């Protein structure tokens, strides 16, 4: 059963608060207070002003009586309880905490105060019991009413719910429970809107607002999102619930699903909105009439047009705005439509109040029928067609005017074409222009006016298509008259379409422009001539403002016409403005001006111009324009100045210069310079019109003359050396260079000869030739090679004697042609030293230098060269060249090398001898001492000793002899190896088996506790080796491993085969080899410095190295002090080439 709303009365505690408590002042006598308490049956509160300062209860009275207190004279302030519990009670406080407070404090009274600490009332156990008794009685009475009410609510189709002050559901009817998804109404108790909606954000507490405002809300329509995503609309009514004291304690609401009604209403509103929008926005007048023809609606355009009110128009007086002439027809058609139901359509004139005129309208109306086909009303529109009707009338008038105009035009051919291009009309202008009469041309294709080549290119068809697409086609071309003559015409072809956009034909307007074309052609020729000339041309008004400039003017002075006028006109181009004033004054007098002027271009450069200025006059002779022609003579002036300077240069030249004109018979001389006069002794006047043979005398048999003759005949340059004779008959040598000169038509006209006196050079060459022949003889007879070279850069050879080939196999020219040839053939190891020495010679101003370096011979070998030379310096202290000689010292260097080798060999032998003597003196002394001592003991004591003791000394002698034998064998082997006499006799055997047998032999001879461990990766390895030399290798390596390892240590011996090589590794755990001794370990008689007293000759590893080399193998080792050493030997197993 849901909680009754009446229980809310207890929750707000209003029923248990006594708002009129019994109060007295602190001066009141106790007996008076008891009388009041008996009268009111209440405990009393003591107040001082507005403050509660204590209380007196019935229990306090009993205590006072028991104590014998004088009640008549005692003031209540003296015996009251000074501590009174004060409680602020809010609207939502519960009863239970207050009951618990009475139980815990044993108090009989609680003062209730408000937010301002003002007393509101008191709560006592009696007030609580009284309130609960009333509620219990009321509950029993309401239970039956509630059950009846619940039954009524469950039968109502609306959803009903109620909530407390915190918007928590207290109950609902069955319809509301089903609406929110619950089976039973009890399931909703204790839930809020957050538990009922799909989206928690939609759970807004509208109820809280309602309860705060304490105002009911009716007919509120709100959306609700369903769990399946759909949305429904709910109509809600909510009223606040009040307690007995008038406090809001909750709310009661009803809910109804109005989704269908909402959708229907929205569709109707939208439909009406669309209709209103359409009716008010379309440009027509819209009206609606009932089935009898009475107007029931019209849009604002009707009212605006009539200038009337809606009531007046709806009253049936609309006919007064129809034109009197159109009214009978309008009424007749409207009555016919009302009678038959056919569509209403009529054209008539309506009076328009804004303009005060009648406008043509098209009236249309359709009958709207119900489902039974009965006419409900008429929907009509009045469309303003005044512009169209007016345009049609104007068009008819215009067509008539146009016809008259076309017929009267004589200068233009105007005619119509059908869509296929056939002539449909013909005016008098067309007759005059083409020679065709209307009867002759109408019906013919307009292509007959085109030349044959245009017809072949389908130009008539293209123009029709272009006009159809673009509505217009304009062209200028040649056409043909009836008599076959041609004329130029400008034609405009316009496409004509009807209202539906369909092509109806074309209108063609043709104007004869033959005369204009001829004028344009003439002007174009003149313009091209002006624009193509190299002279600048300007046309200006009489004040100098430019009207026209040609491209050449812009190219010369860098000004366009606009730029020049912006800067001030023509005067801007004159360097001296007074010259411009002179030109203007001359032209204004009616005269032409011509002269050379310095002008300034826009770039600031000065330009020399030959200027000619004339006046242009109108028909009355008045000067209106100035025309000027500018010829740029800057280049000509520059050439003239250059020629003048060249003339002066030629005149001042130390070489003789001759110019001969071959267009004159015999090629006479036309010019000689002063140097020629000084060189030959002849004056210019004496040689003019003379031939070159004047200077040859009788010496005409010179080969150079024939060479010069051939060159002059073929028009080529020529350089010869000739013997000539001066005027006084003395001989002089000169070098003559002749060059041909051609005119602009490539015809040979002149020869220019440059003559240089080389008499002294010839004399010096003769002396030099004699000196060179002498020197060449000396060089060829000397073993040394003489050279000169550059003193800088790559020291390229300038000269080298021919005997260089005998020394290094190269021709002398190879050194001279390639400046880097000498340095590139020096041995790379010597090149840097050579450069350093030559650089020091120049830096420290040394006079001489001497070098020794290797030079690559042509046969690919290097030869030692001794290079000695000196630096030649100029007067300023700059190096000019290097002069020196080479000597081949290869033999000497070889002797020096052999001598050094011999000395090193001797030193090595002496060292070897010293080590051998040291070894033999040490190693042989011990066994010899053993033999000597044992022999002496045997000699003196052999009769006294036992046989066993005798054998001990005999064995010592045998061991010492064996040791000496081994040492001698090692010495013999190393001696043979050093002498290259150690024999190599390979044979085939199994290497694995050989190694196993060798290890067994070594084990048998072991006297210590060493262990030898042999392993092989292969069961059998066939090899082709010298087994004796292999024995030397393995025996020595195993012997050393055992000798230098402590007793009990392990020696590993491994054998493997890889890449056709036997890989033998012997590893010990011995003393190791010091790093500083490792490089010399394979030298004869050499021992490491950490062997101590361990016996050894220092020959074992030397023998091993020699034997490995004989097998064409390799040996290497790794060692660490105190850890051990590993030797690795690699020997080929199949083939060996000694």
TrEMBL record:
It holds the Pfam family HATPase_c. SMART domains: HATPase_c (SM00387), HisKA (SM00388), PAC (SM00086), PAS (SM00091). Residues 215-270, 344-397, 473-525, 593-645, 716-770, 849-901 form the PAC domain. Residues 919-1135 form the Histidine kinase domain. It catalyses: ATP + protein L-histidine = ADP + protein N-phospho-L-histidine. GO terms for molecular function: phosphorelay sensor kinase activity. It comes from the Bacteria. Keywords: Kinase, Phosphoprotein, Transferase, Two-component regulatory system. Residues 145-217, 271-341, 398-454, 522-560, 666-715, 771-841 form the PAS domain. PROSITE patterns: HIS_KIN (PS50109), PAC (PS50113), PAS (PS50112). The keyword Transferase applies. It is an enzyme of class 2 (transferase). Its EC number is 2.7.13.3. Photoreceptor which exists in two forms that are reversibly interconvertible by light: the R form that absorbs maximally in the red region of the spectrum and the FR form that absorbs maximally in the far-red region. This is histidine kinase.
